[in-house]
Amino acid sequence: MAGDPMTASDIAEWMLKKVEFDGILYQQDAVNYIRTHFGEEFIYVNENGNASISKEVKKLFKKMHRGRVAWDRDGFFWGWT
Question: CA 36, 42, 47: angle at the middle one, nearest 5?
Answer without folding.
Answer: 115
